[in-house]
Design goal:
158 residues; alpha+beta; Alpha-D-Glucose-1,6-Bisphosphate, Chain A, domain 4; seven-stranded antiparallel β-sheet; 4 helices; 39% strand; globular; Polyketide_cyclase/dehydratase; SRPBCC family protein; START-like_dom_sf
Length: 158
């Protein structure tokens, strides 16, 4: 779902997980495991314990294209939300948990760029990743796959 009125870069998807927010949080908050879930993330090297201010060096891949990024955790609310910003492009990626009761949790993944994306990012997406529309569609598919993988890991462990 894209909401262009507030943020033309906003992408969001969610799923319901048959597990408590605590159980979902244990998996989602361990960013070191991101390569297990995200189809584009190959490495996420974390510096120090995970919390606001934690930095990482990331390696992403889509087809033959490979690119590094860095990120910094900008929100860390146990059992509620974790978010990290990618400074080179201005995007913020987040995972939010909502307690649905009865041992169920809604898990949402969001990509936003409230200040817009960088000119460098826009040009690279245009030249190498098929343009904004195609890349956003790919990201939405990958976000759904990411949440399905997280859901599977959490539900198998409960």
């Amino acid at each position: 779902m894209t909401t262009a009125a507030t943020d033309p870069y906003l992408l969001e998807t969610s799923t319901e997980v048959d597990a408590s927010p605590r159980e979902v949080w244990e998996v989602v908050s361990d960013l070191r495991r991101m390569p297990e879930w995200s189809p584009q993330t190959r490495k996420m090297l974390i510096r120090g314990p995970i919390g606001v201010g934690t930095r990482s060096l990331n390696l992403n891949k889509l087809g033959w294209r490979v690119w590094p990024t860095t990120s910094v955790v900008v929100r860390y609310e146990p059992q509620r939300a974790i978010a990290f910003e990618v400074p080179i492009n201005g995007t913020v990626w987040s995972y939010e948990l909502e307690d649905l009761g009865d041992g169920r949790t809604r898990l949402a993944e969001r990509r936003e760029a409230p200040q817009g994306t960088s000119a460098v990012s826009r040009e690279l997406i245009k030249r190498f990743l098929g343009g904004d529309e195609a890349f956003s569609a790919q990201l939405e598919r990958d976000m759904a796959r990411t949440l399905a993988r997280i859901k599977g890991v959490v539900e198998r462990s409960v």
